[in-house]
Specification:
By secondary structure, the chain is an alpha/beta fold. The chain is 37% helix and 21% strand.
Amino acid sequence: MLPTIKVLIVDDSALIRQMLSRALSVDPRIEIVGTAKTGIEAIELALERTPDVITLDIEMPELTGLEALPVLVKSTPARIVMLSSIDDPDTTYQALSLGASDFIVKPRQGVARSLTELSELVIKKIKTAYRIDPAKRVAASETPDDRSASVQREPRTLGRQGPDRVVAIAASTGGPPALERLFSGLGPGLPCTYLVVQHLPSGFSASLAKRLAKASGIEFVEASSGMLLRNDRGYVAPHGAHMVVEPGASPRVRLEDAPPLHGVRPAADPLFESVARTFGEQAVGVVLTGMGSDGALGLKAIKQRGGLTIAQDEATSVVWGMPKAALQAGAVSKVVPLDKIPAEIRRSVRQGVSA
């Protein structure tokens, strides 16, 4: 019999607390051990009732969710799922960098939402968070400035604008902080294009692009159809469309309105498969932390065409689902800790350009 998951709901809105309580009550495996309306109450109840997962609102009186979050991470084993407003994605990413395991876009008051739809979303997030090792919340909360590894800056390439190589990266749960760490370790100047698929709700990909640019010094944009691929530039797939590479003399981004794969859109498999077809041995594919199996088949296509394929190792993954699936599919050339992946990318790009 599967263990019960104890959940603490924290929100200053009585309506939101009620909605979440009703949404979670449909699953017999979930036990709501309390509700709180401030950050102070959240800390007190968490210490008293030892929940496995806490849903934590960001904006609250007395003590905000961002202020309570570090205390909860340090003093309890609870995994924190933030309740985020779509109007403030930057704050959500800040919460993830402080140790939150995941986030849910908060239902807007006055906006009707199917209880079934809300239940499916929240229960899935709760169960995913429960699978996370509490010790990995602290590792995820490290910021680039906390790390001693030096970033090796490459001289900027002033030759042709088209990409010499393409690095395609996929991530899901735990992905935003992992992507920031990876790109902060790369820095600008490599003669390659970066294509990123991160499973996110609508409204969060443009903010992720800005954060990756700030962390790395590389120009990042939210991708749109027709964008030419350029060296030393990153493209983040937007919510609601699959991002692929359109081949030709000047390869470019194409967004496709195809059905979701693995329950998500964008998915990594279409991107990886298009990169394999277009760039072959000049491609690098990377699968980072995340739940599920997205990216495994596409990564295998890159490997079969002679490209380098990398999976984040279990020890540094928040959830070792996607990397494990890729490894089991025979799609992985190297399994590497997160902080070692930038060096593998640099080495591969240098070798490819030299060749």
